[in-house]
Amino acid sequence: MRAMVTGGAGFVGSTLVDMLVTRGDAVCVLDDLSRGSLSNLASALATGVSMVTADVRDADAVRRTASEFLPDVVFHLAAQIDVRASMADPAMDADVNIIGSLNVLTAAAEVGVPRIVLSSTGGAIYGDGAVIPTPESAIPAPASGYGLSKWTAERYGEWFAGTRALDVRVLRYGNVYGPRQDPDGDAGVIALYCDAALAGRRPIVFGDGLQTRDFVYVDDIAAANIAAATTDGVGHRVFNVGSGTEISVLELARAVGDSVGVPPERWRIDHRPPRAGEVRRSCLDVSRARHELRLGPGVPLEPGIRRTVAWIRSRSRDEARGDHGDALV
Predict the structure, then answer these.
(1) Which of 1, 18, 3, 4 is nearest to 178 (CA)?
(2) Per DSSP, what are the bridge partners of residue 246?
(3) What are the angstrom distances between the C-alpha of 316 and each of 182, 195, 216, 278?
(4) What distances in angstroms separate CA 291 from CA 92, 243, 274, one per listed residue?
(5) Other Cβ atoms within 10 Å of 108 Cβ, number
(6) Mind listing the pLDDT tens digit for each residue in 63-110?
(7) CB 135, CB 240: distance < 8 Å
(8) In what order do the strands lie in the sheet with 167-173?
(9) Distance of alpha carbon 217 from alpha carbon 222, whole angstroms
(10) What is the pLDDT of residue 328?
């Protein structure tokens, strides 16, 4: 399989690239490196993976990359993922997530790419009031600009499927975590808590901490992308990808503290005011993906946290030695 991966230098994208390389697939990455890092692709680039530094908002660059590489599938992961940024600057969020997605869909249709896998959000698209766990049939009611822009990109994908004969598969992710999620960037809460625990800082909780999320390990997301690209004859185009397990932020903080070995008296919650645009409860019904894409139950939360902690510790040791990945590429 020839696979083009937008956002392939990022946390999720680079994990997918490594999995594709292991399968023996030919891979081309398109990434503007605004959040991704070449260090994430060090092993992949050494095997011959091609890298195009470009923004998905640059329609000519996206079209040129697709026409030169001629992929069998495009995995579209490049996105603006910060809920707070989408609330503060919805035009920027829409520019990346809607216009960028349109550029990818248009290029795929013009070049004749058989299949495209769009990354979307299950955590931000359904909104409050949805049944828990939430099935794909629930009516989207996003509370943030991010959720709205990702839903709009999904609708454009559906439109291209109907008018341009593109085979479009949509994956709605839970809250993804794992190695390569940079705790210094716009990271998810698990990376932030692991980093805080290792550094001796208190975990910050916005609101009362009883809000819930569905956390899914990054390898399971990469595997779901490959399953969506390689499974024929599916009956649906939209799939939730998560653990199917609901956990509160307070429970998560305790789990991270226990994993790192922080004494409870030193792991006191720093409560802050709740943030706009964030849903109260989120947990995905993943039965469709498990049945049609034949996905397994995935990595449980506790071993996933341990792997994330180990990666952050290793990263800290590399930085202490001055081993900065980008400088080596």
Answers:
(1) 18
(2) none
(3) 11, 10, 24, 30
(4) 37, 14, 37
(5) 26
(6) 999 999 999 999 999 999 999 999 999 999 999 999 999 999 999 999
(7) yes
(8) 50-53, 26-31, 2-6, 73-76, 115-121, 167-173, 238-241
(9) 9
(10) 25
Looking from the CA of 295 toward its CB, the CA atoms found within 13 Å total 31
Q: Which residues pair with 30 in a beta bridge?
A: 6, 52
146 is catalytic: yes
**Residue ranges in the chain whose pLDDT is less than 50:** 323-329
Whose structure tokens read 């996905």? 295
The one catalytic residue in 146, 177, 193, 217 is 146
- Is the distance from CB of 72 to CB of 5 less than 8 angstroms? no
Residue with tokens 């040791």: 317
Q: Which long-range contacts (CB under 8 A, 24 or more apart) does 80-84 make?
A: 80/146, 80/149, 81/146, 81/186, 82/146, 82/186, 83/124, 83/144, 83/145, 83/146, 83/147, 83/275, 83/277, 83/278, 84/275, 84/277
Q: Per the structure block, which two tokens stand in for 47?
A: 């095997």
CB 83 within 8 A of CB 146: yes
User: DSSP secondary-structure letter at 24?
Assistant: T
Q: What is the pLDDT of residue 64?
A: 99
Total residues found in the chain within this entry: 329
Alpha helices by DSSP H, listed for the chain, are 11-23, 42-46, 59-69, 83-88, 90-94, 100-111, 145-163, 189-199, 218-230, 249-260, 287-292, 301-320
Provide the pLDDT for residue 185: 60
For residue 135, the model assigns a pLDDT of 98
What pLDDT, on the 0 to 100 scale, is given for residue 252?
97
Q: Which domains does the chain have, with CATH numbers?
A: 2-247+274-321 (3.40.50.720)
Q: Could you tell me which of 220, 217, 214, 278 has the C-alpha nearest to residue 244? A: 214
